[in-house]
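Weekly sync, protein design subgroup
Attendees: M.S., D.O., the rotation student, P.L. (late)

Item 1: inverse folding check
M.S. brought a backbone from last month's batch and wanted to see whether the design step gives back something sensible before we order anything. D.O. pointed out we never logged the input encoding, so this time it goes straight into the notes. Structure tokens as presented (212 positions):
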């Protein structure tokens, strides 16, 4: 196998499938395939230097704060719209700075919960995706072994055309390889999503704190 698998899949993919323990680089989480470092959990304080979030009260019980939090957390809302929306919200409190600050803090708490929940789902999905890729890689390796065994058989050198079994094996191998490669390319983009959500959360937190 080995030469066949590396030649057909390419050096990088072939090495990824063939590498043994001696070549493997240790990873904190074997189910995390992304170049980006895995951050399992986030906390509100990572992005917030304003008033105490818990002391501001339950954001879900404040209908206005909850509606705004969900709107600005949504990626359908461009970041350029967030500032004006926050200004309109803050203006309702007039000169009552304490009430305004608590309400804005509740907005942040809602944004954090919404975006963090979305991020957690993405991180979990990436792990499941990676497990599927690992199973497919093992299947491709087994298929390559079988193809090599058929080609190395004594009767193979006398054959003028591919035996039916070998033809079916190579067709399945080519199909699985294509799916594997397409999924690997998709994974590159999926891996960026947690970081994009963190960046959005950090930018919204900055915009809210600028209005405290």
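Designed sequence read out in the meeting:
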């Amino acid at each position: 196998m080995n030469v066949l698998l590396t030649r057909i899949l390419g050096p990088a993919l072939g090495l990824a499938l063939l590498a043994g323990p001696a070549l493997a680089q240790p990873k904190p989480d074997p189910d995390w395939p992304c170049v980006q470092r895995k951050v399992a959990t986030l906390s509100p304080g990572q992005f917030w230097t304003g008033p105490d979030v818990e002391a501001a009260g339950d954001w879900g019980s404040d209908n206005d704060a909850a509606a705004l939090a969900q709107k600005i957390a949504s990626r359908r809302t461009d970041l350029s719209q967030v500032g004006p929306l926050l200004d309109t919200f803050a203006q309702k409190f007039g000169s009552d700075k304490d009430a305004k600050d608590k309400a804005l803090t509740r907005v942040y708490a809602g944004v954090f919960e919404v975006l963090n929940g979305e991020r957690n789902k993405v991180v979990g999905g990436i792990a499941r995706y990676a497990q599927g890729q690992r199973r497919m890689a093992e299947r491709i390796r087994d298929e390559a072994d079988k193809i090599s065994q058929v080609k190395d058989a004594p009767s193979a050198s006398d054959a003028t055309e591919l035996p039916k079994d070998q033809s079916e094996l190579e067709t399945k191998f080519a199909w699985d390889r294509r799916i594997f490669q397409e999924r690997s390319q998709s994974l590159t983009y999926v891996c960026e999503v947690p970081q994009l959500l963190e960046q959005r959360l950090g930018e919204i937190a900055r915009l809210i704190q600028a209005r405290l």
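Discussion: The chain is about 65% helix and 0% strand. The chain has a mean pLDDT of 81.
Action: P.L. to compare against the previous round before Friday.
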